[in-house]
């Protein structure tokens, strides 16, 4: 059907499209705005269409998950959107025996901590293993306590779009949540050893 659309500048247009076709049109317009400006852009049209209450605070990652999962429910788009997904391996491996446990899961984005060395270093730190030693050893598949390495690694990178969320909140030495104000550099081109990635956009959280 035909729908009346009120733009951010107050202009009114008639536009065709409902459901997923309508959402696709809104997304294209949103990314066109992001590609043609160096300032922040509003997402009012998109959040209104998705039924997100702008008065309720949502983490930008939650909005992204909500949007991607909504689009994936459309069979005609699911194959395309699967190329925007990380496959992450969650593992724990004994350092003294051959015991290990691994599982793979799909992620629309990965969360990294800010690093003074920039995005690439943040990705490396994300994949850095934690070593479990006494008294925090792992009980392996035989029931034996053993030293182990535990962590997550990127098994498969997305084919088209890789999204990273920078988590600026962490526990301080006193157990309180603190915000990390460290300056964080994001390159226009990221070489991760599996091909290059060109920066498309940066979403800055108002908080």
Could you characterize what this model shows?
With 207 residues, the chain is an alpha+beta fold. The chain has 5 helices and 14 strands. The strands form 6 sheets. Strands 4-3-9-6 form a 4-stranded antiparallel beta sheet, with no helix packed on it. Strands 1-2 form a two-stranded antiparallel sheet. Helix 1 runs antiparallel to helix 2 (44-50). The two termini are 39 Å apart. The model has no long low-confidence stretch (mean pLDDT 80).
CA distance, first residue to last residue: 39 Å
Shape: globular
What is the rounded Rg?
21 Å
Strand tally:
14
Largest sheet: 4 strands, antiparallel
Strand content: 25-35%
Blueprint (SSEs and pairs):
Blueprint: E1 2-6, E2 12-16, H1 19-35, H2 44-50, H3 60-72, H4 75-81, E3 86-94, E4 100-107, E5 110-112, H5 119-126, E6 130-132, E7 138-139, E8 145-146, E9 148-156, E10 164-166, E11 169-171, E12 177-179, E13 189-191, E14 196-198
Parallel strand pairs: 5-10
Antiparallel strand pairs: 1-2, 3-4, 3-9, 6-9, 7-8, 11-12, 13-14
Helix pairs in contact: 1-2
Q: Keyphrases for this structure?
A:
globular; alpha+beta; 207 residues; four-stranded antiparallel beta sheet; 14 strands; two-stranded antiparallel sheet
């Amino acid at each position: 059907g035909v729908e009346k659309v009120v733009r951010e500048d107050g202009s009114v247009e008639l536009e065709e499209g409902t459901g997923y076709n309508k959402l696709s049109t809104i997304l294209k317009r949103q990314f066109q705005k992001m590609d043609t400006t160096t300032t922040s852009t509003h997402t009012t049209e998109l959040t209104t269409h998705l039924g997100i209450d702008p008065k309720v605070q949502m983490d930008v990652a939650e909005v992204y998950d909500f949007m991607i999962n909504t689009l994936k429910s459309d069979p005609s788009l699911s194959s395309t959107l699967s190329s925007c997904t990380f496959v992450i391996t969650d593992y724990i491996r004994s350092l003294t025996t051959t015991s290990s446990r691994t599982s793979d899961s799909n992620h629309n984005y990965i969360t990294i901590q800010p690093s003074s060395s920039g995005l690439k270093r943040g990705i490396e730190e994300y994949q850095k293993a934690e070593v479990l030693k006494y008294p925090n050893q792992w009980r392996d598949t035989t029931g034996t306590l053993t030293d182990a390495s535990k962590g997550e690694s990127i098994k498969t990178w997305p084919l088209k779009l890789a999204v990273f969320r920078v988590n600026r909140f962490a526990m301080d030495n006193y157990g309180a949540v603190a915000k990390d104000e460290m300056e964080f550099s994001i390159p226009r081109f990221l070489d991760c050893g599996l091909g290059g990635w060109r920066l498309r956009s940066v979403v800055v959280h108002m908080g």
